[in-house]
Design brief:
7 helices; 178 residues; globular
């Protein structure tokens, strides 16, 4: 099995006893937690009960805010990739999919990635919320403001690593829908 990070949306947050009634699939990414996933949970991130695993390692955030941040960054990235024939179709597909799967919250499930180093997965989730996500958000905001061209060029050079995830309505871990 390939280890993945998964991103979902829901109108309520998971609790210790119940998952949200309606969970929409956004994206999965193999062997990493990509920049796109970090930005999509970049606004008001918090630890919640995982919808997949027992520990409290889910990360939830404001869907609209995270989506706006990601799309703003993608527009800036696009300004240097107009000649790349693969980027524009990916950008359109992501934008449409994010609109279709809109809900109140984004929920990142990265337990498979947190467990790779053999450390405490709850500590890894806390580190993600306290350090990794805010750092990614700060770099993205600086790039959007035209204040971090070096980072922006590095993101453009490896845009597939950051944004070319599997965006679909059905993921490896999907939830029943009505």
């Amino acid at each position: 099995m390939a280890n993945r990070s998964y991103l979902y949306s829901a109108d309520t947050l998971p609790t210790d006893t119940d998952n949200p009634q309606r969970i929409l699939c956004i994206s999965e990414h193999r062997w990493d937690i990509p920049l796109a996933h970090k930005l999509l949970v970049g606004r008001e991130p918090r630890i919640v009960q995982s919808m997949i695993w027992n520990p409290r390692i889910g990360i939830a955030a404001d869907y609209a805010g995270g989506t706006a941040l990601l799309l703003d960054l993608l527009r800036v990235v696009w300004n240097g990739l107009e000649e790349d024939p693969d980027f524009a179709p990916r950008l359109v597909k992501m934008t449409v999919h994010l609109q279709q799967q809109r809900a109140a919250y984004s929920i990142l499930e990265a337990g498979e990635m947190f467990s790779l180093d053999g450390g405490d997965v709850e500590e890894a989730a806390q580190r993600m919320v306290a350090t990794d996500i805010p750092k990614a958000v700060a770099r993205a905001e600086a790039a959007i403001a035209g204040e971090d061209d070096e980072w922006l060029e590095a993101v453009r050079a490896s845009w597939q690593d950051h944004f070319d995830s599997h965006y679909a309505k059905v993921l490896y871990f999907s939830f029943p829908t009505d």
